[in-house]
Fold each of these.
Amino acid sequence: MRSAILLLFAAVNIFAQKQNAEEILNKVINKFEQVEDYEVDLTISTDLQMVKMPDMKLKVFFKQPDKLKISSEGFAMVPKDGVNLNPLKFLKSEYSAVYVKNEKDEEEKINLDVIKIIPLSDTADYILSTVWIDTENYLVRKLETVTKRGVNVSSKFYYKNTAYALPSKVVVSFNQSGEVKPGQDEEKRFRQSLKGVVTLTYSGYKINQGLKDEFFK
């Protein structure tokens, strides 16, 4: 009897995990989509190995599904994906999601569901992602990704207002894990050993103002 109960529990648990992973991710995506548009001030601070860079101050405008505009007083080269506040944007291509466990975040004092995401498309630029989701508010709190280029990226998300899926701060740590070989040129050695932390601080959100498409042209 005991063995039968354990087997039944394991079967139910495996089924629930498959169901929960997709359901949880979809609820996180749906919450982000409640933000039709936003305007926000962004400060980017970098702490990179062997690189000194001043803080950058930008203004970011976004409209669903993917319109983005960035303005700054001075020159600023910022990849658009780097300021996109949708942490699950990479789920637009096919993927498989597996529910792993529930754990406690001692820093934030919240419960998190842990889900692993494996891309099914050959065009995806990542090998594996692990996401920690606050399922009380359906917010991504942490995201770890291993890219095809051998970069390990860990992002921690902080929120002042949990009503919207818009963080007040994102701390991104990355570590290029490629092997540095003797005799490589200096630029390649630098790229393969680069480590650092980038902190994005968002303030002064203006949400759902009704930004026009023409504004982004």
Note: The radius of gyration is 20 Å.
Amino acid sequence: MTTRRLSLPAAAVAAAALAFSACAPLPATAPADIAARSFSSAFELQGRISANDGSRAASGRIEWRHEHDTDSFALLTPMGQIVATLDADAAGARLRTADGQSLHADSAEALLPRVLGTEVPAGRLSRWVQAAPDAGAEVRTLDDAGRPAIVIDQGWRIEYLEYAGAAGDAPPARLDISRGDARIRLVIDSWTALP
């Protein structure tokens, strides 16, 4: 009996110690190191794109030349025929379709949905395709090489499914961009930084 009386208070003290330690704040852990990523203000890329908004969908090839504040997009069928070209600069955006239509707007963001069938954050794409989000974006998770794996930017979720190599600065090869019903999938087949 004496042994039991001594072990109960000891057990109670141990349980209390565990309870108090569970309430104590956890020690801070150092954030995972983010691999150094450069942002190129001029590049060319070629790839495959699919987009849908839950009711409309489009897919094909994309060729994109981005130089500072100027963008030139060519959207092609999977077989390589041009569906539309879109050029945008500080003066506005111009969309020309294969059937001869020509449209003008203030920005590429206003015209790309006419081709892809869904809202497209054209002004943010140049950072997203480089996995180099700006300071306002939240990097949620990193991959094993310290590169962004999931980024949230102005309500958009950008998932980097594959990079073009194992190096920390390798460009993305596959990404999935979504917000609500809007989804854009991009496979980058070639990437060239321009001077």
Note: The radius of gyration is 25 Å.
Amino acid sequence: MAKQEGWLRCKPLVYRPHPGRRHAAAAMTVLYMASALVVPDSGVSAWLVLAADAAVLDRLAEWFIGQPAFKTEVAMLALGNAFAGAGFLVLGATRLGLDLPPVAGPHMLSVGALGCAVMAVLIIAGLRHTGRDLLDLRWQAHGAALLMAAAAFVRVLPEIAFASGLAPLLWSLPTGR
């Protein structure tokens, strides 16, 4: 348990997933990946990816609540999990025949889930490895997290023919290139 100080005074941060479901998301994801490799065109992999979606969203339902959920690094981790759930849902629906772009699910998983999770880890590790507290988060980190989240949202929109030129701009702004 970590205790928050400063402008965000609240109860100790506690995240306790239900013991029986602690590894369900990872297990269902591994089962889906194995079935997608062995029987890629089978309906089994479609149903397993939907089971992985349910497990990821179940884990997200037990996320931090209250004021700690509004901290940038916690919100980015939650958004990454939300993108993972949405990506698995779209991937499963596409495999079951729903008329969705086939790249929308993988883009939600890669750009959304992975991008937001990596940004959160960079924020946390960057502060911890330089000996600073998480309350010492500068405006640049908040801005980079916001741009990463916006880029993840905008990356999926071109699949539905909207805002196709905005994604590269938002992806380049956090790095300054």
Note: Helices lie at 24-38, 43-61, 72-95, 104-129, 139-156, 166-172.
